[in-house]
Amino acid sequence: MSRGDQGEGDGPAAAYVFRVTVRLDPDVEGVWTEPDTFETTVFRAADPPGEPGWLYFRDNLWRGECGDAAHMREVAEDALGMSVDSIDFRELRTTRAYLDDLRAAVADDLETFNADTVDEALKQYLGSSIHVTDEV
To answer: 26-63, pLDDT tens digit by residue?
Structure first.
């Protein structure tokens, strides 16, 4: 689904943003592409804090980068249905309300994040890559 397919206000309150290099590998002999790679931006909706999947950032990111790049390339390949040469985490794009809910959920369980403060926990996983906006 493209961003344009969403109605006003129907988008997620937050999304993980990745820069991905995709490789085109035509399966038909005598067919090729130039260039055979291109960069695109991939968004993954962030699950609401406390809901299943909300710990995505803890499980997949470390200090603002993909914790396991090979795994994240495989995940992106499955989602996109094409080869992925590289993937880089760019930011958590979020509304203020989502970030407030995320901070509250992290505060409720700091032990899970092996951190003394919410700021420390978020920095451990997201680095400084949190972008607060009115619309995701």
So the answer is: 889 999 999 999 999 999 999 999 999 999 999 999 99
